[in-house]
Amino acid sequence: MSFDPSKYQKLKVGESPIPGLFIIDLVVHGDNRGWFKENYQQQKMEELGLPHFETVQNNFSFNKERGATRGLHAEPWEKFISVAIGRVFCAWVDLRKGESFGQTFSLEVDPGKAAFVPRGVANGYQALEENVTYTYLVNDFWSADKKYAAANLFDPQIGIDWPISKEQAIVSEKDLNNPILRDVTPMEF
Known about the structure:
Helices cover 5% and strands 39% of the residues. It is built from 2 helices and 14 strands. A 6-stranded antiparallel sheet has the order 1-2-10-7-12-5, with no helix packed on it. Strands 6, 8, 9, 11, 13 and 14 form a 6-stranded mixed sheet that branches. The model has no long low-confidence stretch (mean pLDDT 96).
């Protein structure tokens, strides 16, 4: 499936049902050569309601096979996620202590969509095509001294409706062994 940049002609920042999780429609300029986008533009996005975000690192995850599935991981920092190539099904679950603990949200992300993920909200995704490049900016560095949380991708209590079944998904052993929601210690900040 080819990406249609004409679907994304206006920069929009909108809130999701999970507090602090924002979905961004990016402006994508396309022509006969391909397309161009400003993946993250701090001033424009903050003017539309995105929280202030100072990046310290840019990460890429290449997913060779359709069905590559990663997550659900929550960190003590914020992330700005998008894809450079391909499409993914993204899913989030709130692992922060409070009323929204366990709240979920999911969405298909292509090069015209992005998401701002607050600290303590677990992020996971599934490649919907071959050769997907997923990218994310973060505002802190990984450290063994920090507290992290994870939840099981296929926990029925979380109830994520993955487009590619557990039996067909390509998942690491570590992610398959993430705890179910009732065994997760909520993150506090």
